[in-house]
């Protein structure tokens, strides 16, 4: 596929691109210290998938056929599920770096372009080995070992992939749907809904644009909010002055637009604001007044979770 990566955006100047990526690099370097705790948290998150799936379907998660939409450049969820013996695979627009080989890097250059190539080279050199070892240790505490199975990592656009009808018991996607163009999302949801087995569950968690982190500027990432750092942009800059662009494509969809999209294709079982209240200290009276087109709930938060089932009329 010769398509520009969606994980690099359309930042106007090289200076802005450099700035955003420098912030990102600093954030990742800081994250190195807490890596093991982060990965333990990730495994707990996967336990959450298990209990959600089992409570809704009364079927064992261990036997579910699962699919991740947008596993990302650090495909830790998919690596962990596969390592724990689950029948999981996924797709991403960008080719992953799984074995750290030159061949993989050249594929990334060819598939995703030079900006992603630079990011992947830095990531592979500085972070990947450390992170994979930490994942292996976290898995070992649960009696598993890290297993890399490159054939489970499809590379392509989820809007084009041919999925077998009713073949998937569990579909999940984290921080991806906000990067898919609006005009592709009906096709994506129709295809995922068709692929979902009659008892299946889909958990789709986008970062919604109106949230404090929804603009995807690194200095407003949720975990930076309690840090006293100098920021060059204002809170909710992306809904206000819009002086800075993130280093990724965003469809800018609001909560009600996701709700309508999912209702067209699925039964919506539950909707959760995963970080309700996030950013409250930045919502001063003046800012609130300026943003009075939005509800407080959609401003205070970042990631929302939609729990979806197959529509009754789509059941065989
Ligand atoms: C912000 S990353 C999230 C990655 C991962 N889910 C995580 O939580 O770390 C978004 C990912 O979605 C992928 N993506 C965006 N549009 C896509 C599409 N149409 N098909 C497949 N993957 C896509 C991007 O390539 C990127 O890796």
How is this structure best described in words?
This protein is α/β, with parallel strands linked by helices. The protein has helices at residues 14-31, 35-57, 76-83, 102-112, 114-140, 182-195, 255-265, 285-290, 296-299; strands at residues 65-69, 87-92, 153-155, 168-174, 196-205, 266-273, 304-310. The chain has a domain at 158-316: Rossmann fold, CATH 3.40.50. The protein is built from 9 helices and 7 strands; from the N terminus they run H-H-E-H-E-H-H-E-E-H-E-H-E-H-H-E. Strand 1, helix 3 (76-83) and strand 2 (87-92) form a beta-alpha-beta unit. The radius of gyration is 19 Å and the shape is globular. It binds S-adenosylmethionine. S-adenosylmethionine is lined by residues 6-7, 70-74, 91-94, 157-159, 174-176, 179-180.
* SSE series: HHEHEHHEEHEHEHHE
| DSSP E strands, number | 7
Indicate the overall shape: globular
Q: Can you list the strand order of the major beta sheet?
A: 3-2-1-4-5-7-6
Helix-strand blueprint:
Blueprint: H1 14-31, H2 35-57, E1 65-69, H3 76-83, E2 87-92, H4 102-112, H5 114-140, E3 153-155, E4 168-174, H6 182-195, E5 196-205, H7 255-265, E6 266-273, H8 285-290, H9 296-299, E7 304-310
Parallel strand pairs: 1-2, 1-4, 2-3, 4-5
Antiparallel strand pairs: 5-7, 6-7
Bound molecules: S-adenosylmethionine (SAM).
